[in-house]
Amino acid sequence: MQLSLLEPDDERWTTLLNGVQHDFYHLPGYVSLEATRLGGRPKGILVEEGDYFLFLPVVIRPVYILGEEPTGYPHLSDATSPYGYPTPLANLPEAHEQEFVRSSLTTLKVKLAEAGLISLFARGHPLIRLPAIPIFSEFGALVTHGRTVWIDLTLAHSDLWRDTRTSYRNLIARLERAGHTPMLDAHWEHLQDFALIYRMTMQTVGAQADYYFGLEYFRKLREALKDNIFIYG
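-> structure tokens emitted (233 positions)
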């Protein structure tokens, strides 16, 4: 098996995403943006053998020993998923899925350790299947943090409305009677309004400082994701 650390501009990154189910958290532009925010380097960890592979986007950050001068990039580093749900992606042989995942993770562990990485934190995805889950638990702690709420947008409007909580339906009806209508802002003309409302929401819920994304962050997010993101309100 071969392990590669892909740069965001490596064509292999985009090519392998085109062949598997993925989310915008896996896009090289988003991982690059997160690397800037976290003070690290964007990488795509690719373990492959023939036509099969295991892929994980990460941000590699320096780890400084207590008392060490934080200048340059030290030998020791850690790797973490960019914010969101950038679960490991895989194209696996169905008949030997567990064996391939075990071999891939063994290669990943050995090669990353040789490169000076001392830990890896990876987030899963509520809708993209993580293959051979028991095998992952052999290589570290596998933690379930709780349920994730999702909505099936392929359902008919009547079904979605029926499944909406009664109190929410009442609030929506009240807003409609007051003359409010939803709007798709494809050109981001109301970005400043959105950023202000977002900040007010974070204040209301008492969010941690890491969740206070500013106006410039949202501009860079749009630049990174291009047509994969829009404002709706």
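DSSP finds eight helices and eight strands in the chain.
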